[in-house]
Design a protein that fits this description.
The structure holds 2 protein chains of 2 kinds.
Chain A lengths: L4 H40 L3 H4 L13 H9 L2 H32 L5 H10 L5 H15 L5 H26 L3 H8 L4 H12 L1 H17 L2 H6 L7 H9 L8 H21 L1 H14 L1
Helix pairs in contact in A: 1-13, 3-13, 4-7, 4-10, 7-10, 8-9, 10-13, 10-14, 12-13
Chain B lengths: L3 E10 L2 E11 L4 E5 L6 H9 L6 E6 L2 E2 L10 E4 L11 H11 L4 H15 L14 H13 L5 E5 L7 H18 L2 E6 L2 H7 L2 E6 L2 E6 L1 H6 L4 H6 L6 E8 L2 E4 L3 E4 L2 H4 L3 E7 L5 E3 L3 E10 L4 E7 L2 E7 L10 E5 L6 E4 L7
Parallel strand pairs in B: 3-8, 3-9, 6-7, 7-8
Antiparallel strand pairs in B: 1-2, 1-4, 4-5, 9-10, 11-12, 11-14, 12-13, 14-20, 15-19, 16-17, 16-19, 17-18
The chains are: A mainly alpha, B alpha+beta.
């Protein structure tokens, strides 16, 4: 059946218009998400007097005062280090244990495995506030309050189920013959997992690690409840600045610390972007 | 080197038994093909030999020792999977040497064996490539190379040619046969393609519904199928079957087709299925009347589809023929080429 040339031209035009509309919608959504971040970064370079002008100013004399003064006067570098330790610690432990659990759910014939998996997933449905107070009481009894390891373990409680389910999808998408072949070639089940499955799943593991680190990086509730001085993280510092009832919220400092919190995550995400996209695509098509 | 002995092996999933007491003896160095339709249990049986599936009952011996409780790595077997299962993050060299590295072979020995296998399979120039940079045929060869370097007691093949195109499949089939003739390692080969089984195997085991339907040499199965199932499964184009009645040493289809039965079936009375292979039917002046419906010339031979009393029949004629659709023809067959089956039991008479 042939198509009338004028009909195909109309179809092409509609296709072109549809594509432009989609691009425009994408740009609008991206702007909606990025505008507050852009505003935060912009504000962090303003003097206090330029922050609350009406209408807001886009042209101003930039300053690094918010960064230098606050970095010198506060514990931000120390808290930043705490955040790195806790976020990467929780991310790595969760990836290690969660991926093994996900593999077991995907491959091993365990009686009640489905129920067990759903039960672990359901634990994600418990409001964090309901866990924070019992965790505080347990931590206090064990003398673990304000310790990095306790915050790491607390984060693992919600990161491991997340990793487990995400990685289960990746493992299910891999042909089981790969590890069967490895087992015939001389590996144990665990050996096949570490020597064959883990290297192949590296994109998925890395993208999951990034999400875990970001989730732990920005977490506030557990950090506030389970730490008070030594192991406090940057989100706690931001909350303290914003809720400073004595001096009032220092918006310059707040946006400077906010920017410093976001930038490492963005740099990290850009560095592993290739893996992240590959991992997301694998999960979307196979998982 | 070692043979494989499968004794009364059963496999159940929950309460469902899928392999019902299979007995097969494979002598050292023999090439045995397990054939049957999808779901007949051939792959499950192969996986039980490999140790990838637990055995619910019975025993499997490899090289004279019972391997029921041994993990796959301790059975001294090598397996080639349908999808090759090459490790995508390793080069061809590392893929082929992986099993030897796991067994802590010296590096020199690994290199020697890998290069030797690569030479046999014509893979020398792709040793440093990753599997994704190989063609389907090359991947297949790497999978075979990975098995060869092990020098195992038994080779297991799970439909290894299924993913190849028709031309490459024929080529790889010859290479496989040549390889077996050279190495003489006991081989168990699972396929649903009976041509593959016929051309490659020293012996064929036909499976159906978790049971061994018949086992024997390829031409023995072709010439004397024990059941209707085997008769229908082995041979391409498949055997023709005529439903009719046997009485007084004659087989009758409808009113006017009467065929004198061979001595082994002459005494049978009742519903009978008569099988005749397409190449054993002849066009003749006098014989059973049939009406041609389709003529398919291939150059070397012609396949004619016709109807005898409403029953479809295929005839393979070696010469060129000038019959056309709608034409009435007559068919005959020599008595020695008749296969008589009891319609009720499906067994050969």
């Amino acid at each position: 059946m042939s198509t009338n040339p004028s009909t195909s031209a109309v179809l092409m035009r509609r296709l072109h218009v549809g594509q432009n509309v989609r691009i425009l919608a994408g740009v609008i959504v991206a702007l909606m998400f990025l505008l507050p971040v852009f505003w935060m970064v912009l504000t962090s370079f303003k003097f206090q007097r330029d922050i609350f002008t009406t209408p807001p100013t886009f042209l101003f004399t930039p300053t690094l005062e918010n960064y230098t003064r606050y970095l010198q006067q506060s514990n931000i570098p120390y808290q930043m280090m705490n955040t790195v330790i806790v976020a990467f610690g929780a991310g790595l432990i969760s990836i290690f244990t969660g991926s093994m659990a996900g593999y077991a759910l995907a491959r091993l014939r365990i009686r009640g495995a489905g129920f067990l998996g759903v039960l672990i997933l359901m634990s994600r449905g418990v409001p964090p506030i309901a866990l924070a107070v019992p965790m505080f009481l347990v931590g206090r009894s064990l003398g673990l309050i304000d310790k990095h390891i306790y915050l790491i373990l607390a984060y693992c409680t919600f990161l491991i189920p997340y990793v487990m389910w995400l990685m289960r999808g990746f493992f299910l998408a891999l042909p089981k013959e790969l590890e069967e072949s490895a087992m015939i070639d001389g590996c144990s089940r665990l050996g096949a997992f570490f020597k064959i499955i883990v290297p192949i799943s590296l994109p998925g593991l890395l993208s999951t690690l990034i999400f875990c680190v970001i989730l732990a990086w920005e977490e506030l509730l557990f950090a506030i409840v389970l730490t008070n001085r030594i192991a406090t993280t940057v989100p706690v510092a931001i909350a303290n600045i914003a809720g400073d009832t004595v001096n009032g919220a220092n918006w310059g400092a707040l946006t400077a610390v906010g920017t410093m919190t976001v930038v490492p995550v963005v740099i990290f995400a850009l560095l592993v972007q290739k893996w992240l996209i590959q991992g997301l695509a694998d999960g979307a098509t196979k998982g | 080197m070692g043979g494989v002995r499968i004794r009364d092996v059963r496999k159940s999933y929950g309460g469902l038994e899928v392999i019902h007491g299979v007995n097969i003896e494979i002598p050292d160095g023999q090439f045995v093909a397990l054939v049957g339709p999808s779901g007949c249990g051939k792959s499950t049986l192969l996986r039980m030999i490999a140790g990838l599936e637990e055995i619910s009952a019975g025993t499997i011996e490899i090289g004279g020792r019972v391997v029921n409780d041994l993990p796959p790595r301790d059975r001294d077997i090598a397996m080639v999977f349908q999808n090759y299962a090459l490790y995508p993050h390793m080069t061809v060299r590392k893929n082929m040497g992986f099993a030897l590295r796991q067994r802590k072979f010296p590096k020199d020995e690994i290199d020697r064996r890998v290069e030797n296998a690569a030479r046999i399979l014509g893979l020398e120039h792709v040793l440093e490539r990753k599997p994704r940079a190989l063609s389907g045929g090359q991947r297949q060869r790497v999978a075979m190379g990975r098995a060869i370097v092990r020098e195992p007691d038994v080779f297991l093949f799970d439909e290894p040619l299924s993913n190849l195109d028709a031309k490459l499949r024929v080529q790889m089939r010859s290479e496989l046969k040549e390889l077996h003739q050279r190495l003489k390692i006991t081989t168990v080969y699972v396929t649903h393609d009976q041509i593959e089984a016929m051309t490659l195997a020293d012996r064929i085991v036909v499976m159906n519904g978790g049971n061994v339907e018949q086992e024997g040499e390829p031409l023995e199965l072709y010439d004397r199928p024990a059941t209707l199932f085997v008769a229908a499964f082995i041979g391409s184009p498949p055997m023709n079957f005529f439903e009719g009645t046997a009485a007084g040493g004659q087989f009758t289809i409808g009113q006017d087709v009467r065929i004198v039965l061979p001595p082994e079936a002459a005494g049978f009375e009742g519903a009978m299925t008569l099988g005749i292979r397409p190449e054993h039917l002849r066009l003749s002046e006098n014989g059973w009347p049939a009406t041609v419906s389709v003529v398919e010339p291939t150059g070397s031979e012609t396949q004619i589809t016709a109807r005898v009393h409403g029953q479809v029949v295929r005839i393979l004629v070696a010469d060129r023929t000038h019959v056309g659709p709608g034409e009435n023809i007559h068919l005959t067959a020599e008595m020695r080429h008749l296969h008589c089956f009891d319609s009720k039991t499906g067994k050969r008479l």
